[in-house]
Write a structure and sequence with these properties.
binds pyridoxal-5'-phosphate, seven-stranded mixed sheet, Aspartate Aminotransferase, domain 2, 2 domains, 13 helices, alpha/beta, four-stranded antiparallel sheet
């Protein structure tokens, strides 16, 4: 049989080419909760020496994630930020990176406060209106994007960015957290490196933190392997197990959460107190066509602007079912306030320019009964007297 295994089969854990269970017959991946491994004799190794470097549970997860993204290797880290921080170690002082200005706030904080301190340079540009090519310098090494962006749900054309990057010898790095490889595979569209907050859709149950760097080429993969072994921010065995378990249901969760998101978007659009709904699945949204051309779905993240800051704050304290909490991509629907939560450290003028004002809320649709979600939102709006 030459046919490649299907995505859902890879998610269940049958990574590329692997046969079934190990010798024990265990269907579920065992948690190798060990820090170290016995050597048969001097000069010999089981292949496992120390868990900072190798751990069978983590390795299984890494193989599964590499398969889902179509990379040569994936490295699992203790959080998304640990993954992005490790990735930045492939660069050196004086290197310059062009990023979209609308990014996860923690990534901007890392770039502006840690990487700049270490001598790197960044240009944060509005990729929708500015051409990255105009910002390329002699020391530029990479273009770094998210699509859709967090939180404004802008769509960036991955193929176009890859063309620009490669015609100047730069790497294209894509944070694929929002759509997950179920809906979007940046490496197949020309990206060189994918990063993930595995805390979100891959883990999927709001119960653990994780992060990934997935590489298309073995050169970068080798560098990342060296970095993780050296700085020691690899994912722990139990967390690796949780993410492996989460990924088993990734396709089902992505479909259901997206279906719920579409219903919530429809409800929000019909609500006169909602002034803007940012969701790439709306045909009138700016990124719709590009998103359709590079992804097989639009995801379950919705950002919306209500009529007043008072109403926004009221909704956050009045929902009965939906928690007001950071994070996204889990079974539970969550509402957050980007201005004071995820993007609190982004300078105010940048935040406002990107559209993140005090009336903007972000919702991550979960997999609950959508009628309960809409009823909960309705009662929150209505109790404000709208
Ligand atoms: C959450 C998030 C991160 C950071 O991941 P952590 O697991 O929280 O460290 C990075 N990028 C995006 C798009 C995110 O949503």
């Amino acid at each position: 049989m030459n046919r490649e295994r299907g995505f859902a089969t890879l998610c269940v854990g049958y990574e590329r080419n692997a046969k079934g269970p190990d010798k024990s017959g265990s269907i579920s991946t065992p948690i190798y909760q060990t820090s170290t491994y016995a050597h048969p004799e001097v000069g010999q190794s089981t292949g496992y020496d120390y868990s900072r470097v190798h751990n069978p549970t983590r390795e299984k997860l890494e193989k599964v994630v590499a398969g889902l993204e179509g990379g040569v290797d994936a490295v699992a880290f203790s959080s998304g930020m640990a993954a992005i921080t490790a990735l930045m170690e492939i660069f050196k002082p004086g290197d310059h990176i062009i990023t979209d200005a609308d990014l996860y706030g923690g990534s901007i904080r890392l770039f502006d406060h840690i990487c700049e301190k270490n001598g790197m340079e960044f240009s944060h540009i509005d990729i929708n209106t500015e051409d990255p090519e105009d910002f390329i310098r002699e020391n530029t090494r990479a273009i770094y994007i998210e699509t859709p962006t967090n939180p404004m749900m802008n769509i960036v054309d991955i193929r176009r960015m890859a063309d620009i990057a490669h015609s100047h010898g730069l790497l294209l790095i894509v944070d694929n957290t929002f759509l997950s490889p179920y809906f979007q595979k940046p490496l197949s569209l020309g990206a060189d490196i994918v990063v993930h907050s595995g805390t979100k859709f891959l883990g999927g149950h709001n119960d653990t933190l994780a992060g990934f760097v997935v590489c298309k080429g073995s050169d970068t993969a080798e560098k990342i392997r060296f970095i993780v072994k050296t700085i020691g921010s690899a994912l722990a065995p139990f967390d690796s197990f949780l993410v492996l378990r989460g990924i088993k249901t990734l396709p089902l969760r992505m479909e259901k959460a997206q279906e719920n998101a579409f219903s919530i978007v429809k409800y929000l659009q019909a609500n006169p107190e909602v002034k803007n709904v940012y969701y790439p699945g709306l045909p009138e949204s700016r990124g719709y066509e590009v998103c359709k051309s590079q992804a097989s779905g639009f995801g379950s993240m919705i950002t919306f602007e209500v009529s007043s800051a008072g109403l926004a704050r009221h909704i956050l304290k009045s929902t009965q079912l939906i928690p007001f909490a950071e994070s996204l991509g889990g079974t539970e629907t969550l509402l957050t306030y980007p201005m004071t939560q995820t993007h609190a450290d982004v300078p105010e003028e940048v935040r406002l320019k990107n559209g993140i004002n005090d009336r903007v809320l972000r919702l991550s649709a979960g997999i609950e009964d959508v009628n309960d979600l809409i009823e909960d939102l309705s009662q929150a709006f209505e109790s404000y007297g709208c």
